[in-house]
Fold this protein.
Amino acid sequence: MTERIERTILESLMFNDSYLRKVFPFLKEEYFHDQTDRQLFKTVSAFITKYNVCPTKEAIEIALQNDKGLRDGTYEECLSLLSEF
């Protein structure tokens, strides 16, 4: 699979605090066109907004599990993407 810029952004938001501080204020949900990328961004964004730190994979997995509006297919795709990071 080729690396897309959206996935690079998501991974950097989770593991690079310096990047998060510089880039996160300028990101918008509509920049993520793929449903999985968008859902993961929404989850990561909510975590960052609430705690003001980079989320862990485990924290995002828990947030995805607790999202009642999330379809099973999207949930599985998000977990698969997380495992690639």
In short: The chain has five helices and no strands.
